[in-house]
Design goal:
By secondary structure, the chain is mostly helical. The protein has three domains: about 220 residues, Clc chloride channel, CATH 1.10.3080.10; about 200 residues, Clc chloride channel (Orthogonal Bundle); about 140 residues, CBS-domain, CATH 3.10.580.10. Helices cover about 60% and strands about 5% of the residues. It contains 22 helices and five strands. A hairpin with a 7-residue loop joins strand 4 and strand 5. The protein is elongated, with a radius of gyration of 31 Å. The protein starts with a helix and ends with a helix. The relative contact order is 0.10.
Length: about 600
């Protein structure tokens, strides 16, 4: 192929995939716009009009409709989440049971175990159910449904164009990045998050980053064209200038790890509790909503999103007692809202919980060490990053997330310290139970990872496992071989000619016809039985090629011959020894 033709093919290939990823970004972007409008309308007609409750917004979000004159009704807050649970429970369990819980975890499961396949109806049901759950007072985040809108469309597009499982997984992950990056106005973090959240270890799905980046940028631009540019949260010009402040940040990391462990334990404890509950699944979100409403009756600010209070905490406008009540209360309202079968994301509540705990720790140290900790609001931002790292095992994308969401890049150093400590201390817990440890543990990469590993190994690496077996002469009568066969457990028999050259091979299966026909024993020689069309290997061949030959011919052993002389027999290499060696090698990698 000429250079110009090659260049033309590359351009055509790149253009095709660019089209796919831009299309995913457009759908995810408009999906984020639609969901944001639905949430705004729901907050207006449910919480505002029915209960007179008007939670604050972050600086980057504005009211879609003006507030009503409805007086605050605490009793309505008690029952409103339960009403939302009735509707969302009926929707989810009637039309798409997979849409229950937090959507990002379902997308992770689809990536690893379902070839990136998501039913087309799931994003639609998830969007409606999440809107109802969140705007009737349920605690949750917006990233779950948005991630599933993007992921669902990526999966649908790949299926429509008959793409491979690998390509469908990539397009699905690009949809996750686009959805999350747009709704939180953090396109870079959205792309990194889609690649990092799949694994518990510090591992990235590298082939996802560029596609997710393209889709995320497109979705972000569409969202901001409608709702305005800028970050989700506003923050003062925080600066890290005193190394002594690292001490309080280390304490913050410890507090966040303990809080994160509590969050995960409570979340999955309540999920288990509701699974064991002997009532129809349709009713469970209503019961969870009622429990949420009871907490909200006493602590209204733990309902819905909670971003407004996190925004106030950044500017040091919230007391320690309220911050602690917000953090602990939101752990339970989130667990009851989503763990009972309601629909919503877990990133949003994590940001609020982490910010509240960070703000409380910052204010305490501000009182104890006012010359060292001069800006408690900085601890809110670092707390957001550290806490989500502790519960999600995504340190890199989370640091970028919080920096983009708050437009605060001067806290990268303390954020890196806190996120690193939180990751190391909290590796055993994760809010995303469908994460796998690393690429080697993902069913999505089982075949290709095995192939990659085997390609790095040569037959010479298994020289100690090459079996020296008994050979037979091509002129040996079958009657004489029969005596040998009765005294050996050998299954494959190499055949040599009079010059000692390797000319064929046969197995115990090949002698079946002759062994049961006594009158042929003296007439048949081993040359008549052997297979002369030899498939062999050499010391320099990689084990992937060897395994391919074994599988192709459905045999258990392959003759090894010398590189410079194909008729010089060295021994047999067995399929089981190759697989055992591979398993041993993988075990060492994992350790």
């Amino acid at each position: 192929m000429s250079f110009s033709k090659s260049k033309s093919v590359d351009l055509k290939y790149a253009t095709k995939w660019m089209f796919y990823f831009v299309l995913i970004g457009i759908i995810a972007g408009f999906g984020a716009v639609l969901f944001h409008y639905l949430c705004g309308l729901g907050m207006h007609y449910f919480l505002d009009m029915m209960a007179g409750y008007r939670p604050g917004n972050p600086a980057g979000e504005h009211l879609l409709l003006p507030h009503t004159d409805t007086p605050f009704n605490q009793w309505m807050l008690l029952i409103l989440p339960a009403l939302g649970g009735v509707i969302s429970g009926w929707l989810v369990y009637t039309f798409a049971p997979e849409a229950e819980g937090h959507g990002t975890d379902a997308a992770i499961d689809a990536y690893h175990h379902k070839g990136g396949m998501i039913r087309a109806r799931i994003p639609i049901i998830k969007t409606i159910a999440s809107t109802i759950t969140l705007t009737t007072g349920g605690s949750g985040g917006r990233e779950g449904p948005i991630a599933q809108i993007g992921a669902g469309f990526g999966s649908f597009l790949a299926t429509k164009f008959n793409l491979s499982e690998r390509e469908r997984r990539i397009m699905m992950a690009a949809g996750i990045g686009a959805g999350v990056g747009s709704i939180f106005r953090a396109p870079l973090a959205g792309a990194l998050f889609a690649a990092e959240v799949l694994y518990r270890d510090p591992d990235f799905e590298s082939e996802v980053i560029i596609p997710a980046g393209i889709s995320s940028v497109v979705a972000y631009c569409i969202f901001c064209l409608v709702f305005g540019w800028g970050s989700l949260f506003d923050s003062p010009a925080f600066k890290f200038e005193n190394p002594l402040e690292l001490g309080p940040y280390i304490v913050l990391a410890g507090v966040l790890v303990v809080t994160g462990a509590l969050y995960v334990k409570v979340f999955y404890g309540i999920i288990d509790l509701f699974r064991k509950l002997k009532v129809p699944n349709h009713i469970k979100p209503a019961i969870g909503g009622l429990c949420t409403g009871i907490i909200g009756f006493f602590l209204p600010y733990t309902l819905a999103f909670g971003y407004g209070l996190a925004q106030d905490a950044i500017f040091n406008k919230v007391s320690i007692s309220v911050l602690l009540a917000l953090a602990i209360g939101k752990i339970f309202t989130t667990a009851f809202s989503i763990g009972s079968g309601g629909s919503g994301g877990v990133f949003g509540p994590s940001v609020v919980i982490g910010g509240a705990m960070g703000g409380a720790v910052g204010k305490v140290f501000n009182m104890l060490m006012p010359t060292v900790v001069t800006q408690p609001g900085a601890f809110v931002i670092v707390g957001m990053a550290g806490f989500f790292t502790a519960v999600s095992n995504t340190p890199i994308s989370t640091i970028i997330f919080v920096s983009e969401m708050t437009n605060s890049y001067h806290l990268l150093l303390p954020s890196l310290l806190v996120c690193s400590l939180c990751y190391l201390l909290a590796k055993r817990w994760t809010i995303f139970e469908n994460q796998v440890k690393a690429r080697v543990d993902s069913p999505a990469h089982a075949g290709e990872f095995m192939m990659d590993i085997l390609q790095t190994m040569k037959v010479e690496n298994l020289e100690h496992l090459i079996k020296k077996v008994r050979v037979v002469n091509e002129d040996m009568p079958f009657s004489q071989f029969k005596k040998i066969f009765q005294t050996t457990k050998q299954h494959y028999f190499p055949v040599m000619n009079g010059k000692g050259e390797f000319v064929g091979i046969f197995s115990s299966t090949d002698i079946r016809e002759v062994i049961f026909t006594s009158h042929l024993e003296e007439l048949v020689v081993m040359k008549d039985i052997m297979i002369s069309g030899l498939i062999t290997t050499t010391m320099s061949e990689d084990l992937n090629a060897v395994l391919h030959k074994l599988t192709q011919k459905n045999i258990d052993a392959l003759p090894v011959v010398r590189e410079d002389n194909p008729k010089a027999f060295e021994g047999l290499i067995y399929r089981r020894d190759i697989i055992n060696h591979y398993n041993y090698h993988i075990k060492k990698i994992r350790e």
